[in-house]
């Protein structure tokens, strides 16, 4: 049946249903990171119960990130093929069952299996979300939309320390995994009833649809043979040479170098505060909530900044360049943590760092959305996420061994400081790679 809301005679004032879609993406990402974060908050309990070393825990984190990264390309391909509505539901079904499955783990190997399955399911979140944003938002609003839904990562990280420790103390760690994992099933119901692609959605009018499609199709600059056959092409009649586009190398490099730092902030900050400042499970909540609330502000603010520059007439790629340069600089103060003698100045620096990372993340995803056509965007995001989690799979192995080495020497704090130095430099190197492959080719505003 024809959707009468899309007739030209319909209301001339645009509807704003696209922001409902962003809200759905926000809640999905919140659940995603809540399920991901539970194990880091329960680490003090689990390491005693299962006699984990830092290397054991690092191995468990590596299993998650490896399967997460190895699955993103396949997840992106599937989502491009079957669409965001069904593809997203499939991803959340897998990760919700896996999150609940942690309760069945009887040892380190059991947790590795559960984390691997969780990684496979969660791999679909960002390819589906970025593709949805590209479908529902014009270029000038995409960074803000990504920033809003990406802030769900931080809200999930804020909610986790608020509910997980008391839940674990009251009901046990097994029930904590079951209760948090079950939230995904509630989201699936909302997604089924409220989501559809814009051209088929009954909740938008012709004016909003025109707003969504107001910019011309992406025409990225491609180096090399534009007629090259790409194994990731959308279909045999519409081949697109993804790897011939220089932007893919900048995007993948940026993710490779910076995603592992976020994994460290996510999975080791509770342990860092516990080990260095002797915070028990009851006292971890307040500093972690402060840190991840700051990350939420950074995610939305980072998207807002580049979107504001674009509205003022800046070329989109140049706006991303200057915004991301600022965010990279804001992370460098973590290298000064070794000079701090009290906890709250450290919390302030970490808050700035995670805020800057999330601002960076909102913009690096929109770099991909700016440079590639929608029909291959899930695969592009999958490639970038795969690169990021490749680094994220290796970095925990390094972190675990560094911390075990310095713990054996009786100087665990020195091990953390080395890792913070690496974190402070990673974004500057990543920005340089983006400049080489993307930013210096940007049109002048």
Question: Features of this protein?
Answer:
single chain; 445 residues; mainly alpha; 15 helices; 74% helix; disordered N terminus
Description:
The protein is mostly helical and 445 residues long. The protein has 15 helices and no strands. Helix 1 packs antiparallel against helix 8 and helix 11 runs antiparallel to helix 12. The longest helix has 33 residues. The chain is globular and about 65 Å long. It starts with 17 loop residues before the first helix and ends in an 8-residue tail after the last helix.
Provide a brief overview of the structure.
With 445 residues, the protein is mainly alpha-helical. The chain contains 15 helices and no strands. Helix 12 runs antiparallel to helix 13.
Q: Helices, strands, pairings?
A:
Elements: H1 18-50, H2 54-82, H3 84-101, H4 108-122, H5 125-136, H6 139-171, H7 173-181, H8 183-194, H9 206-212, H10 247-277, H11 285-311, H12 316-331, H13 343-371, H14 377-408, H15 412-437
Helix pairs in contact: 1-3, 1-5, 1-6, 1-7, 1-8, 1-10, 2-3, 2-4, 2-14, 3-4, 3-5, 3-7, 3-8, 5-6, 5-14, 6-7, 6-11, 6-13, 10-13, 10-14, 10-15, 11-12, 11-13, 12-13, 12-15, 14-15
**From the alpha-carbon coordinates, what is the Rg to the nearest angstrom?**
22 Å
Structural class designation: mainly alpha
**Biggest beta-sheet profile:** none
The total beta strand count reads 0
Uncertain ranges = 1-11, 217-238
* H-E string: HHHHHHHHHHHHHHH
What is the straight-line distance between the termini? 44 Å
Q: How much helix is in the residues?
A: over 70%
The proportion of strand residues reads under 5%
> Globular, elongated, flat, extended or rod-shaped: what is the shape?
globular
Separate helix tally: 15
Mean pLDDT reading: 84
């Amino acid at each position: 049946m024809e959707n009468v809301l899309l007739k030209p005679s319909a209301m001339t004032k645009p509807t704003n249903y696209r922001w409902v879609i962003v809200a759905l993406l926000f809640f999905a990402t919140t659940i995603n990171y809540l399920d991901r974060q539970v194990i880091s908050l329960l680490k003090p309990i689990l390491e005693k119960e299962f006699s984990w070393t830092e290397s054991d825990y690092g191995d468990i984190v590596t299993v998650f990130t490896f399967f997460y990264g190895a699955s993103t390309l396949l997840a992106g391909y599937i989502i491009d093929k079957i669409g965001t509505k069904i593809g997203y539901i499939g991803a959340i079904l897998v990760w919700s069952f896996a999150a609940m499955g942690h309760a069945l783990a009887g040892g380190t190997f059991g947790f590795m299996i559960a984390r691997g399955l969780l990684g496979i399911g969660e791999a679909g979140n960002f390819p589906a979300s970025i593709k949805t944003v590209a479908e529902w938002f014009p270029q000038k609003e995409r960074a803000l939309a990504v920033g809003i839904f990406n802030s769900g990562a931080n809200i999930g990280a804020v909610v986790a320390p608020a509910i997980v420790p008391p839940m674990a103390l009251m009901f046990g760690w097994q029930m904590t995994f079951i209760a948090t994992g079950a939230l995904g099933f509630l989201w699936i119901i909302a997604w089924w009833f409220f989501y559809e692609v814009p051209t088929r959605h009954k909740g938008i009018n012709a004016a909003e649809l025109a707003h969504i499609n107001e910019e011309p199709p992406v025409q990225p600059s491609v180096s090399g043979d534009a007629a090259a056959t790409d194994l990731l092409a959308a279909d045999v009649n519409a081949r697109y040479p993804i790897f011939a586009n220089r932007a893919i190398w900048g995007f993948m490099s940026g993710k490779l170098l910076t995603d592992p730092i976020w994994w460290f902030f996510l999975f080791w900050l509770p342990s860092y505060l516990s080990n260095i400042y002797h915070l028990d499970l009851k006292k971890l909540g307040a500093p972690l909530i402060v840190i991840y609330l700051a990350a939420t502000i950074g995610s939305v603010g980072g998207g807002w900044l580049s979107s504001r520059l674009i509205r003022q007439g800046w070329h989109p790629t140049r706006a991303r360049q200057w915004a991301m340069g600022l965010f990279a600089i804001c992370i460098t103060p973590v290298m000064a943590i070794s000079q701090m003698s009290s906890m709250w100045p450290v919390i302030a620096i970490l808050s700035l760092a995670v805020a800057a990372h999330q601002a960076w993340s909102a913009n690096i995803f929109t770099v991909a959305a700016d440079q590639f056509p929608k029909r291959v965007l899930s695969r592009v995001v999958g490639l970038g996420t795969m690169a990021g989690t490749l680094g994220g799979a290796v970095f925990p192995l390094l972190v675990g061994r560094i911390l075990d080495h310095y713990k054996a020497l009786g100087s665990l704090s020195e091990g953390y400081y080395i890792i913070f130095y690496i974190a402070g430099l990673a974004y500057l190197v990543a920005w340089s790679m983006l400049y080489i492959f993307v930013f210096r080719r940007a049109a002048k505003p």
